[in-house]
Amino acid sequence: MEVKKLLDDSSQYIMDTYKRFPVVFIKGRGMKLWSADGKEYLDFMAGIAVNILGHCHPRHVVAIQKQAQKLVHISNLYHNEYQIKLAKLLCDYSFADKIFFSNSGAEANEAAIKLARKHSKERFGAEKTGIITALNSFHGRTIATLTATGQPKLQSGFDPLTPGFSHVPFNDYEALKSAIDENTCAIMLEPIQGEGGVKMPSTDYFKHVRDLCTRLGILLIFDEIQTGTGRTGTLFAYEQYGIEPDILTLAKGLGGGFPIGATLARDEVAKTFTQGSHGSTFGGNPLACAVALATIETLLEDGIMLSECRRMGEYFMESLIKLQKQFPKVITDVRGRGLLIGMELTRECAMVAQACFERGILINCTAGNTLRFMPPLIVTEEDIDRLISVLKDILERLS
Ligand SMILES: *Cc1c(COP(=O)(O)O)cnc(C)c1O
User: Fold this and answer.
1) How many Å apart are CA 269 and CA 19, to the nearest integer?
2) What gap in Å lies between CA 74 and CA 113, rounded to an integer?
3) CA of residue 108 to ligand 1 center, whole Å
4) Same domain, 69 and 51
5) For residue 398, is pLDDT > 90?
6) pTM, whole model, 2 decimals?
7) Which residue CA neighbors atom 10 of ligand 1 most closely?
8) What is the CATH number of the domain that holds 148?
9) Ligand 1 atom 5: the closest Cα is on which residue?
């Protein structure tokens, strides 16, 4: 394969919406990826918190192969076994009673927004449509989810945006309380802000938010597209806050790399979606659901992967904190939960990610100055040690 020719054709034929590393990947296995020019990489990106089982996990591969031979797509005008089984599994393990399936995170959030609005209008009247989200949040790139996303730099150029959204600082209960009025229908938050730089809430923030929502008849929507499906050490991050949302969205890790999104809700809310009120041609197709079912069953089997995620998360954090002690002038904070970890620097982090890439390790730089680590949940101590030693080397050269 002529890599240079491919990269040239990429810039000629593909819209330039991503700042990409100059590499073409052709193969993956577990924590490793291989490029077309034969280099090996250790993957702490997991396709942005997607490949929770690692690359080409045997059970993932078999699920795709088996289902591809049987049935790929029908239509939601008919039933398919795997959509039903996946919905039941997610309900059994969560607060939710019912699920709507789609194909991506943005779509899952679109469904959540539509569901919240229709529910509140029917229950409280036509004016109750306001949705409050957090500054620095990320909820997707469609017009409504982009409006929900509290980052003006991502919205710039795309107005007019969707009416009815407002933003408040994350983890600031008083600001949230004062932003609420009689027309507020929902509050939509990430349990941990992922794209925003792995920003953590304080211990009781969500308890207070939950109480407020319950008292005022406001729906609490948790966007767990990044934090869900085991990423933080429990199947859902909300479990660790001692509260339950009314609506929850999933995507990224749900299919272990196969595209699928899901909107989960309590029965009382879910029943607002009546026949014809929402839909998706591809959403919940047999292939996506069979693969997601195999992914989540593998994740939950004996609880091993989740407990390993917690154990490796602790080991990872401890290792990064040791590194912080060695480079206190460069590293200002290490934070996270499970295997969603951020390390904030006093400087731009893109060049550190670039240096790691050159040394064969994929990491992410987000929010300008925060390195974000979100490896497959099968990561080992050895993998983490290797990353730490490369980071140490890079930071030594920098200082
Ligand atoms: C990635 C992400 C989304 C958007 O998901 P897409 O599949 O890219 O549409 C929404 N919310 C959160 C928290 C995310 O991390």
Assistant:
1) 40
2) 27
3) 9
4) no
5) no
6) 0.98
7) 139
8) 3.40.640.10
9) 105
